[in-house]
Design brief:
phosphatidylinositol-3,4-bisphosphate binding; ILWEQ_dom; I/LWEQ domain; actin filament binding; phosphatidylinositol-3,5-bisphosphate binding; clathrin adaptor activity; mainly alpha
């Protein structure tokens, strides 16, 4: 009792209840996140179209898959915790087991909170992205946070689990699935961001006549600059080829006046038959 951290001044029954309440709260947060994503999907279909609708649907679908993976992870983690408590508590009660292993219990509570918080933040970020008031980078960061908190939850559960436990194997499989779904969110977010930015650069519908004229002139300047650069590169390419032919013996020596003439082609009659290619 003296060695227990003073910061955790909670009664045995309260500590045991905290774990169950936190896991239930996390499950609730994930269910709420799934519902909110479905609402956002419906709203996006009504308020957007074309490329924006395609991007929003792809991002929200990947978020939905991630939420489903997290929900399965939390369920499996809860089953594993029950198994750990039942196999390790002996004659003690569940609350006494949690109190005796307070540091482990704290780890579970912290990891569970992190998973629930990450899911909530992901949904809020997705909502802002769909409404065009947020940043795509927020979704990417939230996905990384969820992957990290998932690893924390698995590590906390693995400490006291039997190596041969089926629930532990399922939990590790669920963790890999969460990581894969989080990576899908990152991929769909990045590709969606590129699509939207590419479309926005070619959207001139909101420009005034003066703005359009200015953009037109600036584009003409860029075209002329690129044409001049292209012509310069073509001259350079010609000089490189000329030098290449000269080194290969195709061109005659350059006379003093700078006139370069190609060497006369040999008569067909004296052409030698090319040697048969030998196999290496």
């Amino acid at each position: 009792q003296e060695l227990r951290p003073k910061s955790l001044d909670i009664k045995q029954e309260e500590l045991g209840d905290m774990v169950e309440k936190e896991m239930a709260s996390t499950s609730e947060a994930i269910e709420d996140a799934v519902r909110r994503i479905e609402e956002m999907m419906s709203q996006a279909r009504n308020e957007s179209s074309g490329v924006k609708l395609e991007v929003n649907e792809r991002i929200l679908n990947s978020c939905t898959d991630l939420m489903k993976a997290i929900r399965l992870l939390v369920t499996t983690s809860t089953n594993l915790q029950k198994e750990i408590v039942e196999s390790g508590r002996g004659a003690a009660t569940t609350q006494e087991f949690y109190a005796k292993n307070s540091r482990w219990t704290e780890g579970l509570i912290s990891a569970s909170k992190a998973v629930g918080w990450g899911a909530t933040q992901l949904v809020e970020s997705a909502d802002r992205v769909v409404l065009h008031t947020g940043k795509y980078e927020e979704l990417i960061v939230c996905s990384h946070e969820i992957a990290a908190s998932t690893a924390q939850l698995v590590a906390a559960s693995k400490v006291k689990a039997e190596k041969s436990s089926r629930n532990l194997a399922r939990l590790q499989e669920c963790s890999r699935n969460v990581n894969e779904m989080a990576a899908n969110v990152v991929a769909s977010t990045k590709s969606g961001q590129e699509q939207i930015e590419e479309k926005d650069t070619m959207d001139f519908s909101g420009m005034s006549l003066i703005k359009l004229k200015k953009e037109e002139m600036e584009t003409q300047v860029k075209v002329l600059e690129l044409e001049k650069r292209l012509e310069g590169e073509r001259v350079r390419l010609g000089e490189l080829r000329k030098q290449h032919y000269a080194l290969a013996g195709v061109c005659e020596d350059t006379p003093e006046d700078g006139d370069t003439r190609p060497a006369p082609a040999p008569r067909r009659g004296i052409l030698k038959k090319p040697p048969i290619a030998q196999k290496p």
